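#lab-general

N.A. 3:47 PM
ok so I finally got the sequence cleaned up, no stray characters, all 95 residues accounted for. can someone with queue access submit it? mine expired

B.Y. 3:52 PM
send it over

N.A. 3:53 PM
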Amino acid sequence: MLVINNKERFRYEIALDNGEFAYLEYRWKKGDMVLMHTLVPKESRGKGYAAMLVKYVFEDLRNRGLKAIVYCPFVTAYLKKHTEYSDLVASWPVI
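B.Y. 4:20 PM
back already:
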């Protein structure tokens, strides 16, 4: 599956076979990418699409020399298992 950065919609996305998208929404704050929300349509869950999106985003951030602010609970859970990306987190918001 191909992940693309849809800059017009502020999200990384995967086009699914059924015409829908799995995506990770982001915004910008003072040069950092704020990871807002990951969504995978119900019928496509459990196939690894969310993890694929998060991995792609963090590899893209590393390649571009950028950092992330994490709001998304799925991204938080992913980072607990994949500590190799912890250096790319600028901050964890206080909620």
